[in-house]
Each structure stands twice: as structure tokens, then as C-alpha cells.
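Quick question, first post here. What does this chain look like in 3D?
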Amino acid sequence: MDNEQLKKAICSSLCADVQLVPRKDGYLFVSTPFAFDDGDSYSLYIKPGVGGVRITDRGTTLMHLSYANDLKKFRDGTRGALLQQLIIGSGLQEEDGEFFMDVVGEDLGPAIVRFGQGLTRIHDLTFLNRVRVESTFYDDLREEVEAIVGEDLLQENFLVPDVPQSDSYPVDLYVRGDRGPLFIFGVPDQSKARLATIIIQYLRHQLEGRPDFGRFRSMVVFQDQSVIPHKDRSRLLNAASSVVDTLEARDEMRFKIDEAIH
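> Answer (accepted):
Ran it through. C-alpha cells below.
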């Protein structure tokens, strides 16, 4: 086959996978090969306007994601920043949960491809790479603890005052309690398990006998305890006052926090 025949074959195949279905509300439903990982097709619509065409998902992408995800987490912290980057980088606009793109008629074909790619990238927020997952883990941990104790009792990246080189021994989350302070450490991987062990042991030595922080308790919350090597996990379990196996163990976390601070 020569280049022209190949072009015709590709165009014929692509065109066969795209259909326009008129709707009574004035929109045209665009049937495309784009689909979510569960097999559901993207909902793409176009509506002619003055001087151009609007491509829109009519809010269906975020609605689909909401079935298995907390959409509030897509708006805050690391995920929120990534979402905004993806929207801008894909040339999309958003209004009240609806993603759309306004184009002139002759640009409609390439724009639909870009629109589908943009929705794919947004959907991929549920499959963040390892580095980004670790970042969102800390965001999620803060949100879970804040929901339990309230914003007023919580400080993030806390440096214990009057401790030598305190900036080298930060506490992920400090909770002020009636029975004394609670230091909470998120542990997504082996390196943080080792660091949390060192920080807890150092602060225990430095704060011994102090009336303000001398009776601190420490809590470790794992992202996935099974990925931490046995020796590192054992050392950390010996150092920490209490452990929560995963963020999903919300009732256990609430019980242990309440027990530590009240």
C-alpha cells in the first residue's frame, strides 16, 4: 500500500468510530473510541454557536470520577494544583464541574482529539505516580486528623521550641491535647520510616523532664505497612506510642487520637 492508500485506510477507520447523534436540547452527542478504564465511554457533546462550536462534557467526567473518589480531594492540595495544571495545559475551561472548549468550526476535528486527551489526563489523577501519591498521602493525612481534632488544635510541620537543631527534626502533625501533645508522623516508604524513628527517639531524649512537651505521645500512620522492610518497621513500632496501619482505618485513628489527647 502506498502512502495515499494508507491515509485513506486510517481515515476510513477513524471516521467509522465517530458518530454524531442529534439531541432534542440542541446538542450533538459525539460517539468516539475514548473510554474510561471501566469501559464507559466519554460523554462528548458539541453545540454550534455564534462564530464557532463548543465542545463539552456537560459535567459527566467529574460525575463519573465521583463514583469511586472523593471529589473534594481533587480540589485541594497537590491534586488540586495538578488538576488546574491539567486543565490549563489541555486548553480546557471549567465552570461548575463542566469541562468545555470553544473552537471555530474548521478546528473541530483536532479540538475533539485534544479534548479527549484532556479528559484522559484528568481521569489519570486517580492513578498518580509514586512521587505524587506520597504528596497526596500527606494532604489526606492532614485532612483526616483535622476532621477528628479540628483546625484549632492542629499544626503542620511543627518544630518543637528550644530543641537543638529543631529544624532537622520536624513533626508532620502536632496535636495539642489535654493529656499532653501528640506528634503524628505519616510514613509512606522505608526512608520516612527510618527518619520518623530517628525523630521520635531524638525528641524523646531532648524533651525528657520538660513540663510542656516531656509527656508527648507519638503516632505513626502508614500508607501501606507491607512495603516497609521488617527491621525498619520493627524499630519504628518500638519507638512510636501507637500505630495506625492505613488511612482507611479511620475509626481506629479516631480512637487512638482521642485516647492520646483526652
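The mean pLDDT is 86.
The first strand starts at residue 19 and ends at 22.
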